[in-house]
Specification:
Layout: E1 14-25, E2 28-40, E3 45-49, H1 56-64, E4 71-76, E5 79-80, E6 88-91, H2 103-107, H3 109-113, H4 118-131, H5 147-159, E7 165-169, H6 177-194, E8 198-201, H7 205-211, E9 214-218, E10 225-230, H8 233-239, H9 249-264
Parallel strand pairs: 3-8, 3-9, 6-7, 7-8
Antiparallel strand pairs: 1-2, 1-4, 4-5, 9-10
Helix pairs in contact: 5-6
Length: 265
């Protein structure tokens, strides 16, 4: 849900304006993105789909502030993004946990680096461990956790600073199908409960349709936005635990359209 839907504000929290990105390697230039314009509002759950090499990860890296646009502007609350910041959390396919830390210490590492008061660290850590359903594992080390548990810790670590937007690059790509579905439900609940703002990259069209409120479909290199879908299957999942997308004809129709777009792109 956008703030503008509530009549509070129509201002995007994060915007791309005619953004292009070019890389030069070994004297050879590659145009990764071309003229991308995109607005992200509070409460959006947005996903980017497209063929390999279309610039999805490049787009996320621009939003995160890891790289700079060749042309155009990347803005957070109308201010130019000049680098990474705590207002933008990032989760990658690999959990990248500190193996010498327990779950609890992995989770609150950023809070300790910021030297927040011990009572605040304890409270925030406890709340987040409860949200990601790992209260009973707080004293375990990463090597004692399953792949799904590690990704839950990575999600919690990114969310504990309460970023305005969470950027995720294929966070469930290495998980088995059962664990992946469990993580999808967790992510959907985390989004719905506090009106968080999520930006997800995935190659899984069904995952995209199940989770998000808006789907951006991109063409192959140079990446451009060719279609935007605003869907509501995630709300069906939240409202009706018995909902199954395989029986939903609208779901099947949009999935087929996206497959055709990606093939054409």
């Amino acid at each position: 849900m956008h703030k503008k839907d509530k009549g509070i504000s129509s201002e995007a929290i994060l915007s791309l304006k005619d953004v292009s990105k070019e890389f030069t390697r070994g004297g050879r230039r590659t145009q990764a993105l071309e003229k991308i314009s995109l607005d992200i509002y509070k409460g959006d759950f947005l996903v980017v789909l497209g063929p390999s090499g279309c610039g999805k990860s490049t787009l996320l890296n621009l939003l995160a502030g890891f790289i700079k646009a060749t042309e155009g502007s990347c803005l957070m609350h109308k201010e130019k993004i000049t680098g990474p910041g705590p207002d933008r959390g990032v989760v990658f396919q690999s959990a990248s946990l500190y193996p010498w830390f327990t779950v609890e210490k992995n989770r609150n590492f950023a809070l300790r680096m910021k030297k927040e008061p011990p009572e605040d660290i304890k409270r925030k850590t406890s709340e987040m461990l409860k949200e990601i359903m790992l209260e009973d594992y707080k004293n375990h080390h990463s090597y004692e956790l399953s792949g799904g548990m590690k990704q839950r810790v990575a999600l919690g670590r990114a969310l504990i600073n309460d970023p305005e937007i969470l950027l995720m690059d294929e966070p469930f790509g290495a998980l088995d199908s059962f664990t992946r579905f469990s993580m999808q439900k967790l992510l959907l609940n985390l989004w719905a409960e506090k009106e968080r703002t999520f930006f997800l990259i995935t190659h899984d069209i069904e995952e995209a349709l199940l989770l998000v409120s808006k789907i951006i479909v991109m063409t192959k290199s140079p990446g451009q936005i060719c279609r935007v879908y605003e869907t509501g299957f995630n709300k069906k999942m939240i409202k009706d635990p018995s909902y199954h997308f395989s029986l939903d004809q609208d779901f099947a129709n949009i999935k087929a359209q996206i497959i055709d777009l990606i093939k054409i792109g």
